[in-house]
């Protein structure tokens, strides 16, 4: 490990920041201190998908088994037609689970963060809330973060784990890089299944339907199946002045009723019991979250001096490959390995880190963007053609046992522990 790296400041106490603190404490004997802009742990967000590459690293953190008691582990992607029948299905992580021993997790973001925070508390890791970063200054010996309340702290290393709107990036590392709107927005919510027809309790994996205006999907997000996470993803013109960094929630009866009327229009062509179930899910929704999907352009700077950006702060991508948490975990584990190299300076660490992570991040970034294209508006006849193509492709996939070839899953079996760390 580079000499005198014994304390790290971590800006952001979401999944990336808390995971970084836990792993650097466990594997590098570095003392982490977390600083979070919000006044308390956030409950923002719906459910998070974590495929094999991420769930394996959660296993190495010692948290996978506990997360499994809270998460849904169904890994099938089931495509339903507008007329209500199943076009086909495929296992999204069957091959990668066979290779890694870890499958797919779909978990409420609040549950994931709760498990991480409890582990941090048990490890005695300090977390300070209500801390808005306003300045970063470096010397030869350390880096100092200053906060809006006038307090400051100094360490040997600073990690920006503060998401796509990172203050560390904007304040110090790369102020020129700004998030760009993808053109796609999500509305989503979590609904208790006791309010829904019995068919909702038997759902497994991600169940998706393409409509002319986008993609509607529902999936269990708890081990017991007592909650369903749903989202509708579609093209939306750049949000206006009402946009905030976290989107917004609608709680009021009037707003939610108006939303339901709008969704009725999007789902009007859905037939059969499947269409009835989706409309019932929307009808039972009490709180709606709207989230415009932003991303960071490829090629930005990730480090400066003693500061390094981690996860979405460095390379936020669209969520359509379920890689947000997994990419952050890979970042953290690679950094940890590099910090264990006794002959590397911090400049060496960041240089090798950048060289090894860029190709991997770029690959997943492009996959997520490509997967997002099915959310775009289309005509009725084009949708019918797309359903025929999807049905045929899924039939061939199953009939020819193409899952045995690992198509689309080889990236999920990636192991950051196998990366070459040589300069």
From TrEMBL:
UniProt KW Transport keyword: no
Keyword Transport on entry: no
Source species taxonomy: Eukaryota, Fungi, Dikarya, Ascomycota, Pezizomycotina
Sorted UniProt keywords: FAD, Flavoprotein, Monooxygenase, Oxidoreductase
Listed name of the protein: Related to salicylate hydroxylase
Stored PANTHER family: MONOOXYGENASE, PUTATIVE (AFU_ORTHOLOGUE AFUA_6G14510)-RELATED
Pfam families: FAD_binding_3
Segments forming domain FAD-binding: 7-197, 301-365
Similarity field: Belongs to the paxM FAD-dependent monooxygenase family.
UniProt GO molecular function: FAD binding; monooxygenase activity
